[in-house]
Amino acid sequence: MIFRRAKSKAAAQGVPLRQFVTEAVEDKLKSSRTSGRRPWMKHVGKLKDLHKETQRINKVIEETFEVVDSEMWAAETSH
Asked: What is the pTM of this model?
């Protein structure tokens, strides 16, 4: 079944089956080489121009979540 599909695709593309299979194997080998890499690494450093904004946001988050609501915790511990 797969052989017939490959033969049909090769014919539709106007290439010999041998060339079609060779290209398919090459594509598979290329993708297996790059699949071991961490795909997210291509995005590292792309937002470096937003460094100051990131610092500002982190500061707001830290200030907001550093506040401890004593009453809430007192109610939790009295149960």
From this structure: 0.43
